[in-house]
Design brief:
Layout (H helix, E strand, L loop, with lengths): L5 H12 L5 H8 L3 H14 L20 H10 L5 H12 L5 H10 L30
Length: 139
């Protein structure tokens, strides 16, 4: 989600400093949450700044960029391996247990393809609709 614009933040602060309403009234007037208005005022009072904070960055990946070569070698060695199998092989080599989604993101980043699912036998029974079947009406 994008942060609110500096223009909107300035308008909310100006309205608050000119005592045009309470925090809740300003939130309704500018169609934002009361918590946002309170946080904005608190940040302005403590630091004198109302600019949004930069993005925190999220959690770091368990698979370091230095370990990408290991994954490339694993995909070459086991081209039919599923994500779960690749995670198991990676754990055996690096003693780090990545999630399937983490492994998928790294494979996508490295533009490596893999088999999507284990191979399955063909179905023995075939489903065929009979065009000559009659509808039975209930009374």
């Amino acid at each position: 989600m994008k942060p609110y614009s500096l223009d909107l933040r300035a308008k909310i602060l100006a309205a608050y400093l000119q005592k045009e309403g309470s925090i809740r009234q300003l939130a309704q007037r500018f169609k934002v949450s009361a918590r946002f208005v309170w946080d904005l005022i608190h940040r302005f009072r403590s630091s004198g700044n109302y600019v949004p904070k930069p993005h925190g960055g999220g959690n770091p990946s368990r698979i370091n960029p230095s370990q990408h070569e290991i994954i490339i070698a694993l995909v070459k060695k086991y081209p039919d391996a599923t994500l779960k199998e690749l995670c198991t092989h990676f754990e055996e080599q690096c003693q780090v247990t990545p999630s399937k989604s983490s492994m998928h993101r790294v494979l996508d980043k490295l533009k490596l393809t893999r088999k999507k699912r284990p191979s399955m036998r063909l179905s023995v029974t075939r489903r065929i609709s009979k065009p000559s079947a009659k509808l039975i009406k209930r009374k």
